[in-house]
Write a structure and sequence with these properties.
Blueprint lengths: L10 E2 L3 E3 L4 H11 L5 E5 L5 E6 H6 L23 H11 L3 E6 L6 E7 H9 L3
Parallel strand pairs: 2-3
Antiparallel strand pairs: 1-6, 3-4, 5-6
Helix pairs in contact: 3-4
């Protein structure tokens, strides 16, 4: 029986925005993306990941506020090659609902994939 890894569950491709964009504009783009638009990683002027936020937080913010006002500057990371159950436990312990696979090569650090704790928890409940 094969152990399910984070890479088996993660969603490749994470929406990005500029930290200076308005919450309203980015929330509208995320809404149009459907399920893939739950989170966004913001990029600074140099294209480096500088934080992340959820569509829910953007929708709750004053529409004209810049995304930078609602960002969480700490981007939770998880490696793709650990068991999904281990990642779920780490995320529970740290209180994270989302974690990202970050790539910093070549060039600036960017989010390549995202995994939700909900998806990982469902893997734990699924029959093996």
């Amino acid at each position: 029986m094969r152990t399910l890894l984070v890479r088996d569950v993660m969603t490749i491709g994470v929406p990005t925005c500029r930290a200076t964009e308005t919450c309203c504009a980015v929330a509208a783009r995320l809404t149009a993306e459907g399920a893939r638009g739950e989170v966004v990683v913001a990029l600074d002027e140099g294209g480096q990941a500088c934080g992340w936020t959820t569509r829910r937080a953007l929708l709750a913010a004053r529409p004209s506020r810049p995304v930078s006002a609602v960002l969480d500057e700490h981007i939770p990371e998880v490696p793709p090659d650990i068991p999904a159950a281990a990642a779920a436990q780490l995320m529970r312990e740290r209180g994270h609902e989302y974690a990202f696979l970050m790539h910093a090569w070549p060039g600036p650090s960017r989010a390549a994939a995202v995994v939700t704790r909900q998806a990982l928890d469902q893997c734990e409940l699924a029959p093996q």
